[in-house]
Amino acid sequence: MNQQVAKFSRIGFVLSATGAAVGLGNIWKFPYITGVYGGGAFVLVYLVTILLIGASLLIAEMVIGKRGQKDCVSSFEEVAPKGKKGWKYAGFMLFTGLVIMTFYSVVIGWIFYYMYLSFSGLPTTIDDAKKIFDTLYAHAPFLQILFHVLSVLFVGGVLLGGIKKGIEKTNLILIPFLLFILLGLLVYAMNFDGFTQAVAFMFAPDFSKLDSEAIIRAVGHSFFTLSIGIGSIMTYAAVLPKHSNIYQAGMMVAFMDTLIALIAGLVIFSFLFQFGGTPDKGPGLVFVSLPVIFAKLGAVGSVIALIFFLAMAVAGLTSAISLVEPSVMYLEDRLKWGRKKAVVWSSLLYFAIGVLVIFSISDGYREFLTFGKKSLFDLLEFSVDSFLMPLGGVLIALFVGYVMNRDIVEGELLGHMGNTVFKIWYFSIRYIAPIAVLFLAYNALKV
Ligand code: TRP
After folding, report:
1. pLDDT tens, 125-151?
2. How many angstroms does the Cα of residue 124 sit away from the middle of ligand 1?
3. Phi, psi torsion values for 399, nearest 5 degrees
């Protein structure tokens, strides 16, 4: 069925895959975990992992999609050698995308709310800011549901348009726009004295701050940020034209993703150092510390706040699209559903569980949706981070490294990579990546 579907253009694919990779992970999570784990040394580990493991796995996932040319399940089945077709079950990693969406969409909703706050009135003290965030988080389930609905509708609307008119077109417009905003904010922040401090904080490594937990977080985050292990990138690569250079595309996506995380970090820390905040604030960094800083800047601050949260919303939404598309393509190709039906049912599924996620952190309902010590929200996030994504990562590495015919893999990459790079990449996929992922999963379960 897919054969008749229009293919991505070269730039359309790179921007869409960049849109998938660049998300809340870059603008919200990367800066705050960098803050929590002390800066430079953590950033260094993150950069090394992206280069050694992340980029390799990203390319491996592209290899499967590009060869398979179908939804995730069918691609695994198509590419697996005779007698190993059972690997198609690995394709069910695609459902992880819907699991991620149950909370990802809720967080995008918070961002919408902060866009609204940007001009209706930002908090002026940290205490106020905490109160506002806490009220939204724990005492306003229906407001959260409202914004969650907006996010579901936006993502669903884009998906209805299909690969070309929906996904490609949206990313072609929004990703350059996102870059433009972030570069603008960077140039603005460069005028601060705080900028120098931000650079020092992020790039001067202090290894005494690096413990094993920091390393695990850095490795785990490098996966999440590149969108590895759930079939997002595989699904996009399935609609690539025959002679696309996935090595180049993969490196480009990894580069853009890293660049945007670093820019976001520099911008946020410059503001923080300039206006007297501390970087180790955790998840509340952009929702609590930053709004207060923006409020200090008066009218200019409102505009900057709006632009900043808009950038975050764009980053989140373009990633969200990639989290749902694998399920949509699966339902269309495998079960022969119409696109509309596939979009509606996938959306309804993660929407409904998302509502439960919202209630699981709300006062008065929390008790019913807490399992052990974890709220449904924490539980889902935890299972994605420590189980579902590592599992997907290992399966991809093992499949490309050991199951797929080496000739086919070489056919996709050798001509573009050259011998030496190919050997390094193949070594990484066969040995480094699987061991690193298993190590990651093992340690995550211990925490
Ligand atoms: N990479 C995105 C971010 O940084 C999130 C994301 C999109 C993702 N697609 C994914 C994470 C696939 C894991 C797998 O926010």
Report:
1. 999 999 999 999 999 999 999 999 999
2. 33
3. -65, -50
